[in-house]
Amino acid sequence: MKRETGATPLVSISAIAVDTETTGLDAAKARIVQIGAIGIARGAVLREATLDLLVDPGMPIPPETTLVHGISDADVAGAEGFPEAWARFQAFAENRILIGHSIGFDLAVFERECLRAGLPWVKPRALCVRLLASIANPNLADHSLDKVAGWLGLQITGRHSAIGDAIAAGEVFAALIPELRKRNIRTLGEAEVACLSLSHALEAGHRAGWAEPVSRPQAPAFQPVDPYAYRHRVGSLMSHPPIVVKGADTTRQVIELMVERKISSVLVSDEGTAGGPIEDYGIVTERDVMRRIASDAERVFDLPVADIATRPLVSIRAAAFAYRAIGRMDRLRLRHLAVRGDDDTLVGMLSARDLLKLRAGSAINLDDTIEHARDPAELAVAWAMLPGVVRSLLGEEIDPRVVAEIISEELCSLTRRAAVLAEQQLLAEGHGPPPCPYALLVLGSGGRGESLMAPDQDNAIVFSHGDPDGAEDRWFALLGARIADMLDVAGVPYCKGGVMARNAAFRGSLETWRARVEEWVRRSRPEDLLNVDIVYDLRHVHGDPTLASQLMNHAYDRGHAEPVFAKLLGDQITAGNPFTLFGGFQVENGRLDLKKHGLFPIVATARTLAIRHGVRERSTRTRLEKLVALDLGGDRDLQAMLSGHSVLLGLLLHQQTADVYAGVTVSNRVEIGALTREHQAELKSIVKRLQAAPELVRSMMFG
User: Fold this and answer.
1) Confidence class of residue 352 from pLDDT cuts 50, 70 and 90?
2) Which one of 23, 86, 188, 395 has the fewest CB atoms closer than 10 angstroms to its CB?
């Protein structure tokens, strides 16, 4: 079983809740008389996966302890001894996280029993629900199992039996997950660090002879990846144009074409041409033909090929990275994928042969898990794979801007899958399907393809028609709320600024959105400027792409037509002054905010000048490159921003991956003292140069 890391969300850890009954409460002398355990997965207790063992302690059970747990000498007569019970327990545990109430006692008893039996002991990774409950609700007077269960509204039974208390501890843990999330404790590592900060409780356990209930999180061993699969996109590997035949063509004609062209598949549509909506096509492969010949050899050659074509067609975006195509083929056991453009039209074809050279390389650690996740817990499992891949890609010296694009790809996929699951929920609950076409948009850094390891939710919905608070709007309010809740559980927290489709300001009909943009551009109040900045970075991830493109085009048209608007956007740009009187960095707890003092002035400069000069691109990198190509002046400063952008992203990603495995809340701050002297000098040079960003924008505004 794959071991969990500090980056694993609590909702997706694979664990067992465990409890022991013993001959006494002195951990140094107590002998085990019963072991109970139950599985936990996807944030829920697995009632069908239990272990309940009586154990012969090799000594008489004191009558006073029998009064507590009800286990007597007669009950354990003939039961297996600890070595046999321990072997069965380890087989059941399978290296999963151990969870229990006051589990430091159980761990200490396990360790001493192993020492007595001459068995090897390696302390397992564990979490204590007593400590977690004191973090989730420090005002609770008593953190006993009964009191915590009562606070959480849980009915527990079978107290003071090992299996009963194990089930109770498991149920409490599952109920604590959303409570801990409210306190920004989402991952295994963050939970461990939070528990380790409870020094008084830990000291009390030490004095009682208990084991430390949690361990300090550590980064896992470095895992290699295939850098080729993360550098190349599907569009650069696909066959173009795709070969399309008419549905009316006979199977014989299609076989002859496949032999002549030496190809293993063709696409099928009524018109027999590429470039149409992806849903208009089917596919016929060599295997399809062979199977049909085996079952209907007499008629198959004269059948219209449309009769044997497979629909719906499985496709992938041309802009997707190659690792995504590999994962999708593996998951669906396919050898061919149609390739679609951003407007969901057919643009090419990808075969397993095109990807064969990638399969011979190192591991493809990101797969297509997100695309078939069944609930938020499975989304969390998929999202938790990302830190390891980012760490490996940085180790392979992949351009940090490409790494940020990969994070954005995963974020957009996560958001898209949450929308699909939310639609299914609403339909199942009787709310019906979407009342009209709509587009789900990812905004901000995710839309630009520049996400880091600490993204929050920035999303919006535009639908084809409907009034604010009308029937359509109310349906999409429900959808937006479900999407936001799922993403929060999966590991992407709610946006502190409220930029989410669950909020009325970030959903509406196309007409409503156009009116908003018009108001923002004309009135240009500071709060409007904050909103419109985000909308210029939008990316369509689900639904009707034409609605997204119409909104984006309208925003650019209006912004470009109002020079005063772009000027006011430029006036908002500031890098702040992070330097002391003597030229050092002003830090907070040893860290500097690189988003505020570095990334923001670069991103805002590129966006503002792109709006002003009609550069209709989303990414900061492409915006800067296009602005340089326009020969507006300031080329050296723009080029410096291009290189500085990559450096800043790299510094932040390195810091964030270290933090996520250490259980430190991921932020946009880097630890200056941990940087090499060369990196510190480079960072100072970049930040100092960015102090002139406002003046650069003013000078280039009318170039």
Assistant:
1) confident
2) 395
| pLDDT at residue number 363 | 46
Report d(CA 34, CA 56) in Å as an integer: 8
pLDDT over 90, % of the chain: 75
What is the Cα–Cα distance from 443 to 513, expressed in whole angstroms? 14
Distance CA 218, CA 652 (A): 19
For 460, 515, 580, 600, the CA distances from 524, given in Å and listed in that order, are 21, 13, 34, 20
Q: In 3-state terms, what secondary structure has residue 367?
A: coil
For the record, the structure tokens of 234 come out as 């599907």
Average pLDDT of every residue of the chain: 92
What CA–CA distance (Å, rounded) separates 217 from 13? 14
Residue range 64-88, pLDDT digits in tens: 999 999 999 999 999 999 999 999 9
Which range, 386-390, 468-472, 561-565, is most confident?
468-472
Q: Are 37 and 50 in contact (CB under 8 A)?
A: yes
Instruction: Decide: residue 177, CB within 10 A, 0-12 exposed, 13-18 middle, 19+ buried.
Output: buried
For the cut 70, the answer to whether the pLDDT of residue 1 exceeds it is: no
Output the CA torsion sign for 611, 612, 617, 622.
negative
Q: Helix H segments across 197-277?
A: 199-207, 227-231, 251-261
Q: Where are the domains of the chain?
A: 10-207, 227-359, 562-703
CATH of domain 10-207: 3.30.420.10
Read off the pLDDT band of 524 (50, 70, 90).
low
Write out the H or E segment, with its range, that includes residue 185: none
- Burial pattern 139-167, b for ≥16 Cβ within 10 A else e, equals eeeebebeebbebbeeebeeeebbbbbbb
pLDDT at residue 564 is higher than 90: no
pLDDT of residue 2: 63
460 alpha-carbon distance from chain centroid: 18
Question: Is 227-359 a CATH 2.60.40.10 domain?
Answer: no
Residues 6+ apart with CB under 8 A from 329: 335, 337, 352, 355
Tell whether the torsion through CA atoms of 364, 366, 370 and 373 is positive or negative.
positive
Residue 361: pLDDT band with limits 50, 70, 90: very low
The SS3 call for residue 164 is helix
The pLDDT of residue 637 is above 50: yes
Q: CA-to-CA distance for 482 and 476, rounded, in angstroms?
A: 10
Q: Which residue has the higher pLDDT, 1 or 677?
A: 677
| Helices and strands: H and E segment counts in the chain | 29, 17
Q: Do 686 and 423 contact (CB within 8 A), yes or no? A: no
**CATH fold of 562-703:** Four Helix Bundle (Hemerythrin (Met), subunit A) (1.20.120)
Angle made by CA atoms 429, 432, 437, in degrees to the nearest 5:
140
